[in-house]
Amino acid sequence: MGRMARLIRMDQAGHTTLAEWTAGDDAATEAAVAAFREQLDAGYYAVVSSGEGHAEQVRELPLDAELVILRRPIAGG
Amino acid sequence: MAVLPETATVYWRPRLDAGRLRRRGQLWTFSTLAHTLPFLATAALLMALEPLSFPVAAIAVVHAWGIPALYANRGVNVVRPRPRAGSAPERTALGLLGDLLGHEARRLHSRTGLALERGRLGVWLVGEAGALLVRQGGRRVDCWCVKVDAELPSADRTAHLLLALREDEEGFATVANLAFSGAVWRLRRRLPAAMRPALDAARAQA
In 3D, which of B198, B102, B115 has the Cα closest to residue B158? Predict the structure, then answer.
């Protein structure tokens, strides 16, 4: 069985898990893609952190990623 | 290379790189000198003309000393801790931030509240509402004010800034507002004592 991947959103609760999926589970993957698009439409940015010093913004849900994090935009203070 | 999407909101700013950063630092130093030298010159002139004007000359010197100090204090403010959310969300957020950081950076964050991140421009210390950039050589520091417009636990605010920094370091510095640029010692003496080890660690790595 494949490793469980997660889509999480940083929010007031600390973070909330919006979807979990594994390779080959089509229903879970579809639900994750739908949740991902909904959050992007709501103004979130999706980021995959690939170890210290590296992170990549993604516009499509990377199904092979272990963790996809949704963040709000930043702005100069 | 991926560009931070938030740079579109500050389209009028040229993208910051090492050269522009150096020039901004020089401009900041020049501006500080322009603020302080007239007071020092006034004090010297007063003493030369009339030594009894010593009290007025002393006031001018205090102004010359105080202006850079105020700027440095403004720089420190970008990393001062903000009010905390409830303890459960803070713990959850801290867990995620810990996963993003390496072992040493996690330990340093738990001691100081600042997340250390090496970049091409220097070594960053990321806080909840801003970041410090210790330039190569460890003598100069830039203080950047940058935030997330949302009610979030403090560790999540730091994680937001850390992820944005990792996505695009130059874009991050372009979006952020420069609050202070100057000597590390000037900032260090005003930094909360608990945060000073993070600045020392950044200097050691810069």
Answer: B115
Tell me, what's the ipTM? 0.93
A residues 35-74 lying closer than 8 A (beta carbon) to B: 45, 47, 49, 52-57, 67, 69, 71-74
Which of A8, A12, A75 is closest, CB to CB, to B149?
A75
The reply to whether residue A54 touches residue B78, judged by beta carbons under 8 angstroms, is no
Query: Is residue A77, in this structure, part of any structural domain at all?
Result: no
What's the pLDDT tens digit per position in B53-99?
A: 999 999 999 999 999 999 999 999 999 988 776 788 899 999 999 99
Asked if B166 reaches chain A (Cβ–Cβ under 8 Å), the answer is: yes
Q: Specify if A9 maps to a domain.
A: yes
Number of residues that this document lists for chain A: 77
Q: Would you state the pLDDT for residue A53?
A: 80
- Enumerate the β-bridge partners of residue B118: B123
Of A12, A57, A67, the CB nearest to B167: A57
How do residues A7-61 score in pLDDT, each as one tens digit? 999 999 999 999 999 988 999 999 999 999 999 999 999 999 887 788 999 999 9
Q: Does residue A13 lie within any of the structural domains?
A: yes
Residues of B in contact with A71 (CB under 8 A): 148, 159-160, 163-164
Average pLDDT across chain B, whole number: 94
Find the domain containing A55 and state its range.
Answer: 5-71
Query: Into how many domains does chain A fold?
Result: 1
Location of structure tokens 């944005």:
B164
Is A76 a member of any domain? no
Comparing CA positions, the residue from B189, B121, B112 lying closest to residue B158 is B112
